[in-house]
Amino acid sequence: MSLTDEERRAIVLYRIEKAHAAMDDIRKVMPLELWSIIANRMYYALYYASSALLINDGHKVGTHKGVIALFNLNYVKEGPLTREDGTLFSNVFAFRHGSDYDDFIDATEEDVRRYLPRVESLVEKIVSLIK
Length: 131
What we know:
This protein has about 130 residues and is mostly helical. The chain has a single domain (about 5-130), classed as Nucleotidyltransferases  domain 2 (Four Helix Bundle (Hemerythrin (Met), subunit A)). It is about 75% helix and about 0% strand. It starts with a helix and ends with a helix.
């Protein structure tokens, strides 16, 4: 089933809103030092923004790894985003996955502070690519 232009635009706007809400969640949770929750929200901010971009450009999105692969193929390999942007998305996915699912692996303040400014910047770069 294909989306109408109106449906596609509604989904894109909704996912952008969710990306921004995830970034807002981070700001609210930072004082509580809940690093694994922040890792989760950083990843989802990137995921929602990236999936919005992909949907906007007519791609079908499915799994999380599929979104990352399509993102890298369409926006990193061919531009306009950099290899570092693609690596960041993959690293934040692995970081979130580890802190959510792996035993004895918890996100730390150091981890969060290393990624957070770059995640904020990349979310805004991705959103700016949506026409």
